[in-house]
Amino acid sequence: MTALRGRFRREVPMARYTTWRVGGAAERLYEPADASDLGAFLCSDLAVPPIFWVGLGSNLLVRDGGLRGSVIRLHKGLSSLEDLGSGRVRAGAGVPCAKLARWCARRGYGGGSFFAGIPGTLGGALAMNAGAWGGETWAQVESLQTVDGRGVIRHRPDTDFRAGYRHLEGPADEWFTEAVLVFSPGEDPAALQQEMRRLLGERSRSQPTGQPSGGSVFRNPPGDHAARLIETAGLKGCARGGARVSEKHANFIVHDGTACAADIESLIHQVRSTVLEVHGVELHPEVRIVGEAADDR
Length: 297
Hints:
Oligomer: single chain
């Protein structure tokens, strides 16, 4: 067996690693040193299924009973950025999207400013085709590196996947470790950085960026916005325990410091049922809800 070089721990509270700041303990948590180390872990006896992948922990609700199996946290080990020239960038799956946006802007690579509005890592953005301000992740993808449950690393073109709105289809049982992205070279770095600051300012004014949240809770339905439907259903400020529908942006649920995961999940269900009753529209969560309830563990 290949010696592992990453960090392995047991019974790790997931509230430390999610932007909602709630969630029970992960039975096992591994932070790989790099992609080859990740492959070695996946084919080791320490990797007990099911496998959960975590970047910065946005768009993720871990229930209070925690997670059985293995959590792999990519943020530290798979965070490299390499300039391949002519607007092409090789980026690890653990790179924060905001860091990628700033890195591209400094090099005059246009088309990547929208990544600054995605509160997670590239791996998560690839998995759900995340987007912001009119841009989407898969519009920039040229090729990818993946790993499967046996630790086998593969290189795939973007054509092996089909991306839709906050949705991706592709080879089963493979996870992203890095991607080659293509941007527009030769643009003015100062102008790109100024535009990014403007967009981030708009985001700060319209979203509750200073409070713990999971990001946008629901996908926008065709031809409409989840926030509009939630607000006009009278749900702004609606609360369950320490969780509340944000008064600033109705598609965010914020944590006041006293919430548990069950409060947030209960509020998500209440919002869905109320919007369906009032508008006849079924909202679909953009956030992933994983793990076990506190009384099931």
